[in-house]
Amino acid sequence: MADELVHYEVRRGIATITLDSPHNRNALSARLRAELTGRLGAALGDDGVRVVVLSHTGPVFCSGMDLKEAGGASADQQGVNEFPAILEQLWTSPKPVVARIAGPARAGGVGLVAACDIAVAADTATFAFSEVRIGVVPAVISVTVLPRLLPRAAHELFLTGEAFDARRAREIGLVNAAVAAEELDAEVARYTDMLALGAPNALAATKRMLQEPRRANLGEVFADMLELSARHFGGPEGQEGIAAFVGKRKPSWVPDAD
Length: 258
Hints:
Keywords: Lyase. The protein has eleven helices and nine strands. It is α/β, with parallel strands linked by helices. A hairpin with a 2-residue loop joins strand 1 and strand 2. The two termini are 26 Å apart.
């Protein structure tokens, strides 16, 4: 639909979800949040989708919550209780999610970036945790942001609200790559092409493994990892992958080129 705020397109197993509300800097309005939730649900529920890309139109990736809607509203009405579900969709997605950031991200927009598995930014993009400067706390986004950031940087940037560029975002762990604007799409494609080579169940299991806290008992951890390895090694994907390697062919889950 022409008037939708979040577009959805699937091509060669890659679902691209595009924020398209440039009039308010892709702010997380109630309508945009609802559409984004729906598009993410569609991607996660489609067996033909292997990788998800979160992108945007206009000069700004996402400016955070729509403050015009939030003014005078209660906490329930501000989307504070709704936004965590979106971050959780991204964080727990069994399919890898890549953020494509061509412009500034602020507050909740940085939370979206951090919730994705891989983030690629144009070197002209900037970021900021601007919450304290308007009298609020970056509480909800801290759930996805803090696991990504170096602790010293988190304290500095959360407390000062200072804007920082993409190269620093890469240095502190917020994004994986900061490239020239004209190279952004090629770099995103490089990552999605690599992710599409992974087996779907293996990717989902690897994501869960990366996110699970490790117990103190090293013997128990090794036992769990041995069981996980054996289950996938002997499973259908593992056996297909081994057969493909030996037969010098692509495994069945790798999409054919157009």
